[in-house]
Records
---
Amino acid sequence: MVKFLLDENVPLSVLRLLRVKGYEAWRPRELGLERAKNNTLAKYALDHGMIIITLDEDFFKLSSEKFKDVKIVYIRLHPRRPDIIRQLMEENINEMLQKIKEKQTIILTQHGIE
């Protein structure tokens, strides 16, 4: 079962989409991690086999060796319209899950996966 940890900046519509599609998807607040720093979220995701979805490029700055295996989907989109973000996730989820098996970080843009 694929599990996702959605950063606080990811729209709730993405959370609902993932759950409707049968994935486990959580926001930090639901896990008692409200206001947690990125390294805390990364450790939690790593410990629980979760893929982080974020709009925050600061996750790329996790420099510690212990975070090298964290799987991250970074959504790079401006402006950050929730409806477009949800649509991008829906259109690219299958390809994203295939590519995340091969690499640690996926960048999702309005043009698809980089």
---
Amino acid sequence: MAPHHVLKCCQRSLAWIPVIFINLVVGWSYYAYVVELCIFTIPNNAEKISYLGVFHLFFIMFIWSYWKTICSRPVSPSKEFCLAKVEKEQYEKEQPDAQQDILKKAAVGLPVYTRTGTGAVRYCDHCQVIKPDRCHHCSTCDMCVLKMDHHCPWVNNCVGFSNYKFFVLFLAYSMLYCVFIAATVLQYFIKFWTNQLPDTHAKFHVLFLFFVAAMFFISILSLFSYHLWLVGKNRTTIEAFRAPVFRNGPDKNGFSLGFSRNVVEVFGDQKKYWMFPIYTRIFLRVLFSKEKS
């Protein structure tokens, strides 16, 4: 037991390495932009102030949405999806066919419409819970996660019902952060590259800052575009690769409510809060909304 416990602790510690890496890169980018570019390189005070104002706006929103994605813990199914003690004991003794009969009886009255590929009630033997629609077991988090999209190593967390809005905003603000840096650094990048500015300690930071910002912008752009498409379709990454199976068969659009309502499902019905990483949705109503009742 002790070696297994130590191994799990090591795995949990190592899982933070990508998060630490991102924070180190962002910390360096802040120093490079504010100190090396704005303070030591840009001569015009009006330009400095305007750049710093917009930069800090994007920086704050980026950090806010990033850490909300990290700190919003995944939500697991409520107790109503757990088998009663008697049912659980009986379930463990029976053969698969009899087990399904037990699950079907237990699922009566529950808002469960999806099935396995063979038409069986979705049940997690590890968590011992009937899976609600769009719920999947994450082996990394070691739990069933409501409306699971994927497990993201860059936030060391499952992206799902509790933080999907924050994740999309994190992608949006990280992209804006990178494109703003690249756009405002470009003219000084060219001046350093063509030796129009003297070689100073700022040169390395400015040159490298442009490359890093451009590289991250290009890589994030495709991911952000993909998740915008998922939001418009009201699908998760898992559902995009494998259509959910309902009682009458697979239906890739089974949870789609139309573009406008699909967006509301993620961002909430108060548009003034869409751009902020705060909770704006009605919890259970959103979770079990589907096209066909």
---
Amino acid sequence: MMTMAMEYQHKQVLLVGLACLDIITVCGHFPIEDEDFRADDHYWQCGGNACNSAVVLQQLGDQCNLMACLSENCPQSDYILQKLTNIGIKSNWCIRHIGHKTPISTVLINKKNGSRTIMHYSWLPELTLDNFQNRVQFDNLDWIHFEGRRKNMLEIGRMMDYIRLRYKDRIKISVELEKKDENSLQLIPKADVIFIGKDFAQAFGHDNATDCLRAFYPLAQSSAIMICPWGDYGADGIGPPQSNIVHADALTLDEVVDTLAAGDTFLAGTIHSLRKGESLLKSISYGCKLAGTKCKQRGLMFEKIPTDH
């Protein structure tokens, strides 16, 4: 990890996955069907797991690139790309498709408890290995993160194989498994760092993070790290040298304002710390701290970034 710690400031991170437009409505309570009532607020922001994590990582000082599919000649896609450019995220490797709509997430945020309810729309083609090989310039990358999208698991696996064959261990590979798919488990042995989502774990019958790691870690390579965030429980992780499960508590909150993208924020904070060469425990602890801080505010732009020490 020390080599990574010394070099990370001179290298960049690529996040591969979804970028979409979040159309957010803030409600005083969660609506019942056929109810007519006045909302408290309404706004747009960039969304999508990979995009959200890039927004947070960039604020932490990591130089980020985003690769996603977007629409061509579309004001919503132009909005997303302009927002990314404004904070320094490179998006020139994104694929633009003519004749398609921009992916949209309609989000209801309940002011009573900060919960978010998401309805997602997307019919864009998924990224392909050809897109990946022909568009990405790998020389300045030391970390590539893949959002494990259900419609694209096999193609993501091919991208991971390409990195490993071509660049060996020079580029770290991480993957997030959030939704169950019949091909998702095939990605675990291909990655250096695996993030297992709560929904994914529960879909396989695991009701806590510790049991999840015990079940899935044997599928990983012996040098890999596996992490399972679990909401207000915190997060568990396992990896070398001891391969013991470690635990980090979630940040205690007096008030929850907005939980949208808290998991993406956790992922960003954890990757940031791992790239610096921090221990697994310190890395997931910082991820929890950052995610908790995000839940106390609206959106992903921090007025003051929490430190990782």
---
Amino acid sequence: MDSGPESRLRLLIVGSGLPEPEVNQWILDANGRRVSRPDLMYREFCVAIEYEGEHHLVDANQWHSDINRDDRLRVMGWTVLRFTKMHLQPGSERASIERIRAAIRASQASSGHK
């Protein structure tokens, strides 16, 4: 984990009863090239979870890089969920967890996983 909010998001996920996500692990393309190292992910469901701190919003180069990264993952069949500090506010946490659950359910439905 690179930041406190990323750790908080992970603890929120685990505390909700979802399985422990992988942390900062590389996703490779079909040729073995590194595509992305999301903050959190469920590899078996192709769900990447990113916490976007303030610098992702104010640094144009970072924002550009994030968009390109997310597009590459989507082309590979991944769902990319992005969260900000607003998603971790009391009152928003339940909806944030439901977004993750919905992405996992959609992956299970499309791949036949149970």
